[in-house]
Amino acid sequence: MRPKRRRKRKTSGASVWALVLVALALILPALGQSQGAFAVVAGTVFREPGFALPRAEVTLSAKSLPEGSKKMRPLKTTSDSRGEFAFRVPPGKAVYTVSVRAEGHQPAEKEVAVGGDERVDVYFELKAAAK
Hints:
Blueprint: H1 13-35, E1 39-47, E2 51-52, E3 57-64, E4 75-78, E5 84-89, E6 94-101, E7 108-114, E8 119-126
Parallel strand pairs: 1-8
Antiparallel strand pairs: 1-2, 1-5, 3-4, 3-6, 6-7
């Protein structure tokens, strides 16, 4: 006698996607909790007379950090085509210095205070450098 052939089970694409979605629904909230909260220091760099200034070098330095935070190196970025920039920083009371430089413009610097897991906006209007 011949052994019986087993039929292969066919799985539908919909059931596979349903399993993937359920797995993601269980994993994603846990990932979000492990990263914790953060604050954002964001802003826009303008040039006279109020136009966005892209490609400005923006540096964020910590003057005082929240309790329990490790020492932080200065963070650097470049403003985008709309003159905008953003930094993620630890939540809690802290003071940061934001410095901006751009070719052909006078540099500027401002102090920013963060009180928790919030967004703080800062705006710069750089003046043209004297020729």
